[in-house]
Each structure stands twice: as structure tokens, then as C-alpha cells.
Amino acid sequence: MSYNDYSELIGLGRVGRVMRFGDIAVKTANVWTVPKDASETTIISYEQTTELNKQSLKHEGHVIKPYHISDTEIRMPYLRQGSLSRYLRTHHDTVDSNRRLQWLQEAAHIIHRVHERRVLVVDIATRNFLLDEDLSLHMCDFTESTIVADDEDMAEFIFEDFTPVKSDIARFGSMMYEVISGNLFAFYVIPDIETDLDDDPVSKTYITWPTDDKLPNTNPLFLGDIIKRCWSREGSLTMQEVCHALDNSGHKKPTDILREG
Predict the structure, then answer these.
(1) Residues of 134-163 as b/e, b for ≥16 C-beta within 10 angstroms?
(2) Dihedral over Cα of 107, 113, 116, 120: its sign
(3) PROSITE patterns of this UniProt entry (predicted)?
(4) Which CATH superfamily is domain 82-250 in?
């Protein structure tokens, strides 16, 4: 591949950017340029940030299956259908329940396989799943992910008073909610805050894990019971459970209930 080919910026995030070169997408780490006459502290900070970005890129390359990975870039196939979030915004009213269920099954199994590799995804969202020509899903962003050490029990691993595995499952519940209802909702648990931050209708932060009365009503929704179990702290505790629930939901899926009544 020649970098003299026509290029297009198709993604920009905290850690890296993605450029398109024909049928190839190339992700590189963001490199911070140290300001002129910067202090020693600033120089160290910029260098550390750049190094962390490079390490995140290498970490991501070991989770996905790219064409090529090096210390400076990841080359991947360019998927013309774009992200699931964009596709849903454009085609929400024409996508049927079977297709939505298939996407969620695929996404759940992808996340389950990632967990089996002792990696916590953290940033689970429709924007981080890309669609192939046949509309199958590919996960594309692991820059926020965390590797759990071999001597840690994934199910019992605790970080900031909570199990990140359950947090991944809750994030997946929010992704399910978006795919099914077309609405956005996510919550975060930060024990150090002084009070719940729940003014934003689509993103809330709680001191402790929220009870059902603080969450959207999913009862009228297709797959609403599975979404609820993903969100509930005492609900689904592994992605394997979520996969099983989705794989066995086909016999009871309605074809017309996609939004809250």
C-alpha cells in the first residue's frame, strides 16, 4: 500500500486516528507535539501520553485480527457500510426484529470471546461496531480496554469497588437498548462522587449501582427482559449468560414491538 494514495480521515479519538487508503483503513496513535519552550514537567507529560497511546494501539492490535500490526499502526479492511450507530440512524424504521437480534447475538459473542482472552472492553457502544457488506458485525475499537492478569479471577476481579465484567455487561445492555428502541441510555458508577448526577436523560452517574426504578422501563420492549438483566447488578453476571439468553430468545421474539409503549 502506498501512502501517496488518496487518503481520508474517517475516525479521530483520544488515543488514535483512522485514515482510509482505498480499501484499507490505517489506525495510528496520536503523537503529541511538545510546545516550544515547554517545561520539563510538560515535556514528560506529553511523552508519557504519546507512549500510552502507542501502547494502547499495540494492545488493540492483539485483540482484533488486522491485516498488519506494527509498533506504529494497525491496518484493517475498510468496511464501507460504516458503524452500526450510523446505519441505525439511517435505516432504523426499516430494520426488522430478526436483523436486530442477529446483530446483538453477534456482538454478544464477540464480547464473550474478548472476555475469554481476559480483556475487558469498557467502551461498548454501537459506534464501535462496523458492518461488513453482508451486514455482519466487526468490533473495531479496544483502546479503552483492560487486560486482567492471569492470576486474577475474571468474574471476581474488582476495580474501584465494582466488577468490570458486570460493567461491560451493563454497557452491552445500553447498546441493546439503543438497537431495539432507538433511544440512548447509559449509566456509570463512581463511588467517589458526592451525589448522583442524573439530570442528563441519556447518561447518568450514580454513587452505587442503580436500582430498577432509576432505569428505563424495558418491559414493553423486544428483548426487554434481557436488557433488564444486563443492567441489574444481580442479573446476568457473564457474557456467556447473555449469549445464551439471546441465542434462545428467537422463539419468543415479537415482530412489531420495537419501542416503548
Answers:
(1) eeebbbbbbbbbeebeeeeeeeebeeeebb
(2) negative
(3) PROTEIN_KINASE_DOM
(4) Transferase(Phosphotransferase) domain 1 (1.10.510.10)
CA distance 163 to 176: 20
The residue to which cell 515535556 is assigned: 43
Q: In 70-161, at which residue ranges do the beta strands (DSSP E only) sit?
A: 73-77, 119-120, 129-131, 137-139, 146-147
Q: What is the pLDDT of residues 204-254, one digit of tens each?
A: 999 999 999 999 999 999 999 999 999 999 999 999 999 999 999 864 443
Cα–Cα distance between 233 and 12 in angstroms, integer? 33
- Given a contact cutoff of 8 angstroms between Cβ atoms, the answer to whether 243 and 108 are in contact is yes
Q: Which amino acid is at 255?
A: T
User: What are residue 138's DSSP bridge partners?
Assistant: 130
What's the full length of the chain, in residues? 261
Strand pairing of 24-29 and 73-77?
A: antiparallel
Which region among 63-77, 141-155, 206-220 has the lowest average model confidence (pLDDT)? 63-77
The DSSP bridge partners found for residue 187 are 204
So where are the chain's domains?
Answer: 8-77, 82-250
